[in-house]
Specification:
With about 550 residues, the chain is mostly beta strands. It has 4 domains: about 120 residues, conserved putative lor/sdh protein from methanococcus maripaludis s2 fold (Beta Barrel); about 90 residues, Elongation Factor Tu (Ef-tu), domain 3 (Beta Barrel), CATH 2.40.30; about 70 residues, Muramoyl-pentapeptide Carboxypeptidase, domain 1; about 150 residues, no CATH class. Helices cover about 10% and strands about 35% of the residues. It contains 4 helices and 30 strands. The longest helix is centred in the middle third of the chain and has 15 residues.
């Protein structure tokens, strides 16, 4: 809000026996939109494209109220504001917690007896059984869209697409053949439409899992994970009875490191990592037939040859950052940017020359072959090493070890009543408010497929657990491990409405409302219809944008 200070004069304002215009204005009625529903609800000014309502002192030389005999008495000071165009938003506030997304907790989606469960340190990959209840497995699928409904013929959507993508990756995309080699069904088309081919692929998948091939997939049949995950804790044992929402497994994000191209099939491997080792950028992590493979710690994809003349890009910058970290800065000439120049080439040659002192197969050529790099995310550590030094690598792609990543990603967790589930779809944006009032943007990344109820609260309603990913975190909370925040859900929005400070609104005795409008050197009352309220602002119909109104002192 901008405040202007103009010379003020005073004026006698007749009241006509209705209201004292210079006492605080009466409060808005209790039946306004702000009181439609119970709950922790506030009216807030939308953050974008909103003009603040300025308050100023103004000089008035005369007043009119319909009384021709009104006269100017002793001067009084009045404050005014200008009606502005604003966006008003109605929010429902939910309690949330800001924390690190270090682990994922798999919770039970249905009642049942645990008949199978993954072991600690087990790597859960696509198609693996995480656990089973009453003999029915919960299978790992990759993706970012939870299954929240029964999937069967004629269903369409992103959840169907996720199912089809996973079926295809698991080998169920090709039609089943009869004994004569002819297809008995159609090939699966990955298109987000659950048709007969999708159902037939599901039936074959179910049959292989050892369950009844119904062609119908229930939310309880799958666990959607972003990728391979390592079990860090088993929260239940075989024979335990689960209830919906009970923790079953605790997981860390994981990745699988496979052997890169070797100089000869069946090459001899040398390993330079051990279980639990942190991966540092520029470290040689293994070698095959004396060809080294170097770790580059980055979240940038490096998948092209980097050499003189290559287009600028983030991958060039990532390699330059690695070279500088290893003190290969071309005598101080290397500039970390996205341009592959002579200094970049020289730095690479210096690095390769030192590698060649240890590994005979290194070619000192001033270029980067992406096959010679092992790209790992920041915070990655070695999980379980599957091979040992001098083992024979059967082929390119052989699993060497798994990794886990201690992510620095910040998330907000909250829960939403079942009745309001539609307000937080996966992929939808929400506003996160910090204790100091700063607002951040978050994206809903997961919604529990089953609801839970707080057993300690007799008045609790069923709620879905929700996880929200933050695009950025301000420095003020960057070092805070855990923080209580508010998750703000938009209930209603009024865009481009005329608004004035709520203190300008005057309740008239017959249940109507007015504002006192400054007109030249006088004021007069103009009837208005109030709408939405907002932290000190009110939408009004009856005056134009730019109208100057009197506000209570």
């Amino acid at each position: 809000m901008s405040t202007n200070t103009d010379p003020t004069t005073a004026i006698d304002h007749p009241t006509n026996g209705k209201v004292d215009l210079y006492d605080d204005h009466p409060a808005p009625p209790t039946d306004t939109a702000a009181s439609k529903r119970p709950g922790r609800r506030r009216w807030l000014l939308a953050g974008l494209g909103v003009a603040a309502v300025g308050v100023a002192g103004v000089g008035i030389v005369a007043a009119t109220s319909g009384d021709d005999d009104a006269t100017v008495d002793e001067p009084v000071t009045i404050r005014t504001a200008t009606a502005e165009t604003v966006d008003l938003v109605e929010f429902t506030d939910l309690d949330g917690t800001l924390s690190y997304a270090e682990t994922t907790t798999v919770t039970a989606s249905a009642d049942g007896l645990v008949t199978e469960i993954a072991a600690v340190d087990e790597l859960l990959e696509q198609g693996a059984v995480a656990y089973a209840t009453d003999g029915r497995p919960a299978v790992v699928l990759y993706g970012d869209v939870p299954l929240y409904r029964e999937l069967t013929i004629d269903a369409e959507g992103d959840d169907v697409l996720l199912l089809e993508q996973n079926l295809s990756a698991l080998g169920y995309h090709v039609a089943e053949l009869d004994d004569d080699g002819f297809p008995v069904d159609e090939d699966l088309v990955v298109d987000g439409v659950y048709d007969e081919a999708t159902g037939e692929a599901v039936e074959r998948w179910q049959d292989d899992l050892g369950v009844e091939p119904t062609g119908v997939v229930l939310p309880t049949d799958v666990i959607v994970l972003p990728g391979p995950s390592e079990v860090t804790e088993a929260n239940a044992d075989v024979g335990d009875r689960l209830t919906p929402g009970a923790p079953v497994l605790t997981l860390n994000q994981a990745a699988i490191v496979t052997a890169g191209p070797s100089t000869a099939t069946g090459g001899e491997i040398e390993l330079f990592v051990t279980d639990g080792q942190a991966i540092e950028t520029g470290a040689v992590v293994y070698a095959i037939d004396d060809t080294p493979f170097t770790a580059i710690v980055t979240d940038v994809v490096v998948d092209r040859d980097l050499e003189d003349g290559v287009d600028p890009g983030d991958d060039v910058r990532a390699v330059e950052e690695m070279l500088v970290a290893l003190d290969y800065d071309a005598g101080g000439d290397l500039v970390v940017d996205d341009v592959f120049d002579d200094a970049t080439e020289t730095a690479i040659e210096d690095w390769q020359d030192d590698l060649a002192n240890t590994f005979d197969a290194v070619d000192v050529n001033g270029r980067i072959d992406p096959d010679d790099l092992v790209v790992v995310e920041p915070g990655t550590t070695v999980g379980t090493v599957d091979l040992t030094t001098d083992d024979t690598v059967v082929a390119t792609g052989t699993t060497l070890w798994t990794t886990t990543t201690a992510t620095t990603e910040r998330i907000v967790t909250t829960s939403i009543p079942v009745a309001d589930q539609d307000q937080m779809p996966v992929g939808g944006e929400v506003t996160i408010e910090l204790p100091d009032g700063e607002q951040l943007t978050g994206v809903v990344t997961s919604v529990a497929s089953t609801s839970s109820v707080d057993p300690t609260d007799p008045n609790a309603v069923p709620e879905f657990a929700v996880e929200i990913t933050l695009a950025s975190v301000p420095d003020s909370v960057a070092e805070i491990d855990e923080l209580d925040v508010e998750v703000k859900l938009v209930d209603e929005m009024a865009t481009g409405v005329t608004a004035v400070p709520a203190s300008a609104l005057v309740a008239v005795g017959d249940g109507t409302y007015a504002v006192e409008v400054v007109d030249g050197g006088t004021t007069q009352f103009v009837a208005v219809v109030p709408g939405m309220f907002n932290d000190g602002l009110v939408e009004v119909d009856g005056i134009a944008v730019g109208t100057e109104v009197v506000v209570a002192s």
